[in-house]
Amino acid sequence: MKKALVMLATAVSMGGAFAQTAAPASAPESTTAAPAAKAGHERNVEDRIAYLHSQLKITPAQEPQWKAFADAMRSNGETMGQLFQQRKAATNVTALDDMKQYATIAQAHADGMKKLVDAFDPLYSSLSPEQKKLADATFHRGGPEGGRPHGHHGKGKAGKPAAEAASDATVKP
């Protein structure tokens, strides 16, 4: 079950929009740890949004569609962050509770992906052919959330680390 959760967390964090960031090592475990983790998580979501905005070369005319997509990313990130915090805070969890938590996270991820798709559809339709090629390449290598690979220690193309292999695949306009 833990391996399945790690796989789900990896899939979720692959989009970066949902990645949970640990508190800095210098922060005590008390009340400062949760706000620091939340601030780090929000920064990751905003970094992902800025990365995609730049990568897709969003034009001023596309900003309304972009805003809807970015807002969906923020909302999903907040939901997933809360669920992972709840899971992390849970103590004395039974096997049944563990499975229920996992099911809740998996369902939230599926619901979030539906919201992202619904928000991305009008944005994608507004993209130029060049932007669509950029989006296709960016999302293909970074998962459905469209992000850069994070935390992957596996090998990508030609035996290179996944992150390095993904950077090789960057589309040059």
Automatic annotation (TrEMBL):
Organism, as annotated: Paraburkholderia antibiotica
A Pfam family per the record: LTXXQ
Region (Disordered): 131-173
Keywords, ordered alphabetically: Signal
Signal peptide: 1-19
Record lineage: Bacteria, Pseudomonadati, Pseudomonadota, Betaproteobacteria, Burkholderiales
Protein name per UniProt: Spy/CpxP family protein refolding chaperone
Biased composition (Basic and acidic residues): 131-143
Comp. bias regions, Basic residues: 149-158
Entry GO CC: periplasmic space
Source superkingdom: Bacteria
InterPro entries linked to this entry: LTXXQ (IPR012899)
